[in-house]
Structures are given as C-alpha cells and as structure tokens.
Amino acid sequence: MIIGVPIAELYVFVQMSHAIGFFESLLILAAISIAGGWIVKRQGLRVWRRFQSQVRQGEVPTREIADGVSLLIAGALLLTPGFITDAIGILLLLPPVRMVLRRFIGRRGRTTVITATHSGPTRHVGIIDTKSEERD
Where do the domains of the chain lie? Predict the structure, then answer.
C-alpha cells in the first residue's frame, strides 16, 4: 500500500499530463489543494463550533468527533499531491459520504467517554461506555 499509492498517483498524473498537458495537470493539483484546504478549514470550524455546543450542553459529541476526524483525513489527502488522494479527500468533504462513514463506524465500534469533575476537596472520575448513536 505504501508503495502502491505513489505508483498509482504517478501513473494517473502521467496519463493526465498526456491528456491535458504537464503544466495544466500541475495547476489543477495546486488549485485542488488550495481550494480543498480552504473548504476543510471552513467545515472544520463549523464542526468545532458544533462540538463545543454539544459539550456545553453535556452531550457526547460523537458525530462531531467523527466529522472532525474525517475532515482531518480529507485535509491530509487534499494536501498530498495526486489525483487519487484528491478524489478521496473531496469525497470525505461531502456530508452524505461522512454520514455513511459515521454509520459504518458506529455499527462496528463503541464510544468510550471519560468524564472528570472537580468540586472541592473530593474528586469524581467516571467512565461511561456507550454505543455510538447517529444524530442528524
């Protein structure tokens, strides 16, 4: 996989260069990275605000955490030069794709939330093991 992805990216880049030109291919990759970074930043800030709101309300922000991880991966893929990684990164930016991914992960795993509160000389630490829930 570590060797296969760069080889596949190089193959696709060479094919695109033959089809539309070398500099045009580079320009497209640069444009996708710049636009993708901007979109990831905007969506990431939106997810961060939702995350903070859920925490303030005392709710477990499972959706926001999953979206944040998806956006982090999307950003890394979009900044990695290559058409294949850009395509996967763009897919992860789409909310319906993230929703499907959240549901798939939610069926496979469990969420463990560790809470800690401090009030006065005694401390209370609780561990809550819950199933992931999808909120739309």
Answer: 4-131
User: What does the alpha-carbon distance between residue 91 and residue 71 come to, in Å, rounded to a whole number?
Assistant: 10
- pTM for the whole thing? 0.72
- C-alpha to C-alpha distance for 50 and 80, rounded to whole angstroms: 28
Contact status, residue 37 vs residue 75, Cβ threshold 8 Å = yes
Q: How far apart are CA 90 and CA 32, in angstroms?
A: 9
Q: Which residue carries 């890394």 as its tokens?
A: 76
What are the DSSP calls for the chain, one per residue? Answer: -TTHHHHHHHHHHHHHHHHH-HHHHHHHHHHHHHHHHHHHHHHHHHHHHHHHHHHHTT---HHHHHHHHHHHHHHHHHHSSSHHHHHHHHHHHSHHHHHHHHHHHHHH-EEEEEEEEEETTEEEEEEEEEE-----
* pLDDT (tens digit per residue) in 16-33: 999 999 999 999 999 999
pLDDT greater than 60 at residue 77: yes
Cα distance between the two ends of the chain? 34
What is the C-alpha separation between 44 and 87, in angstroms, rounded?
Answer: 19
